[in-house]
Design goal:
The protein has 196 residues and is α/β, with parallel strands linked by helices. The protein has one domain: Ribonuclease Z/Hydroxyacylglutathione hydrolase-like (Metallo-beta-lactamase, Chain A, 4-Layer Sandwich), CATH 3.60.15. The chain has 5 helices and 10 strands, in the order E-E-E-H-E-H-H-E-H-H-E-E-E-E-E. The strands form 2 sheets. It has a 6-stranded mixed beta sheet with strand order 1-2-3-4-5-6. Strands 7-8-9-10 form a 4-stranded antiparallel beta sheet, with no helix packed on it. A hairpin with a 5-residue loop joins strand 2 and strand 3. Helix 4 runs antiparallel to helix 5. The longest helix has 31 residues. It binds zinc ion. The site of zinc ion has 5 residues, from loops.
């Protein structure tokens, strides 16, 4: 098994972590957008640093844009696997991804008017609302505390992370090389005993 980090490393946004099993099964934990790094952000969001077509599953910890904001881009670039999350995360992700698509389209439209005036090449949004809708078709709800077996070698369970509605820590169990390995991806952590 190999774990690589493609975001939320040396900064706090763009959460994306790749888990690759020995049998080739590849799971992405979160697919967040980089935010707030100025012009540098654009390039970082355009290139994943891995091939979306080679990812089998995505497990989403919660619906904040820095954790789910590049899912439509991932799908646009060929990801066709299942996206697992809690019920509330699915509802919130739909709203946030559609909102993000609209904001990007408006920003690009405005910027391109300026660029056209100066004879500069036109920019493209990372994704549009159709891409966000296409991504929603891949979502699958998994309830808290329900152990979900992706395969004989890989299972996971969500527990409440107390961060926002639907937020979860992801507890993964991998069976390979005649041993059992447990990995917990906390996502963003909130408070104990949070009412929502
Ligand atoms: Zn968050």
């Amino acid at each position: 098994m190999e774990i690589t980090f493609h975001g939320a490393a040396r900064n706090v946004t763009g959460s994306k972590h790749l888990l690759r099993l020995n049998d080739g099964t590849t799971v992405l934990l979160d697919c967040g957008m980089f935010q707030g790094l100025g012009e540098q952000t654009d390039g970082m969001n355009e290139h994943f640093g891995f091939n979306p077509k080679k990812i089998d599953y995505l497990i989403l910890s919660h619906a904040h844009i820095d954790h789910c904001g590049l899912i439509p881009r991932l799908v646009k670039e060929g990801f066709e696997g299942t996206i697992f999350c809690t019920s509330a995360t699915m509802d919130l992700a739909r709203i946030l991804m559609m909102d993000s698509a609209r904001i990007q389209m408006q920003d690009v439209e405005y910027t391109n008017k300026q660029r056209a005036k100066h004879g500069q090449s036109l920019l493209e949004a990372l994704y549009n609302e159709d891409d966000a809708m296409a991504a929603m078709r891949l979502f699958k709800i998994v309830d808290y505390h329900q152990e979900y077996a992706i395969s004989q070698r890989l299972r996971f369970k969500f527990t409440d992370a107390g961060h926002i509605l639907g937020s979860a820590a992801v507890h993964i169990t991998v069976f390979e090389d005649a041993k059992e390995t447990h990995i917990t991806f906390s996502g963003d952590v909130g408070r104990y005993g949070d009412l929502i």
